[in-house]
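hey so i finally got around to running the thing on that chain from the lab meeting. sorry it took forever, my laptop kept dying and i had to restart like 3 times. anyway pasting the input first so we r on the same page abt which one it is
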Amino acid sequence: MLLFTAFFYNSILQAQVGIGTTNPDTSTILDIRSSTKGVLIPRMTELQRSRITETADGLLVQDLHTGKTVTNRNNYGQWGIVDPVINQNVNFTAFFTAGSVHVLNYDLGSNHQWITFPISGPLQGVCSADNVIIFITQTHVNAIFEDANKVVQLSSQSLSGGPVVDMGITTNVSSIAVLLKGNTAYRFRLSGATWSTTALPSTPANLRVLKDRIIFTAGTSVFYADGNALLSQPISGSRAAIYANADAAIIHTTTNLYSFVPLAIGGMDVQTNTLATDITNVYDNGQKNRIVVQSEDKLWVLRYDPSVGGQWSSINITGPVDKVVAADKF
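ok and heres what got predicted. didnt touch it at all, straight out
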């Protein structure tokens, strides 16, 4: 305890901390050095991230829905991927107060417009895309969006009981949003600006956002929002786990390995493999439309294409994979 106190007091005096070094760089407040380990920042869904209060400019988290590291910008409620690209497609911004949301609409040529909507209770979570904001209060889930005349509108759907599980929204122009609460899925589709609800067989889990689909599990089924419909696919086995990127999702259980590839013409291509051993890892470097899945005795390769769907192949292996190296340079 005395050693920790002395270290903490000394760190405050120097305004610098070195981990793995006794000589931190003079330009840093925290200098972490290691040749064998990395730094793990908090990982959370967009819903969990939206509940952070008084969000600091520059705050970093990893978004579990997209797998990307995001940062808060300008204390303005806008999150962006950690890269040099700035989103130029923000059409409106919402300012939430107790009992109201004030929306500033930029998308009116040289003019702008303020619109205020009453809301029922304090804000409890939010997700957003370029053209829609979905937010939750205690009694309602709501969508703020632009109509065909670029006028901002509010559409609300009352909520039933049960805890909020998760929420996600697609990034395509006809955005689809899904809120999972209790044993119910609430869906909003920007095309038509309509809400719909679906009773689920059990508490849902594993929500992931693909480019223009949202997928999750509930009981012994996988559900995915596809246009106006919420479709389902039965799965076998227990302990379902999911991996997804923007174009494909992989779900594995104790007995089966599934791929879900959204098709460009609509619908979902589903492929199934039987597993003899557990899945131990998934490798995806975002190249060549392929994902590699490792089980204890095989390396499975999923090749996916939105025009034709998914195709699996595999090779047998002996022993675990010790290291994976991609032939590229970041």
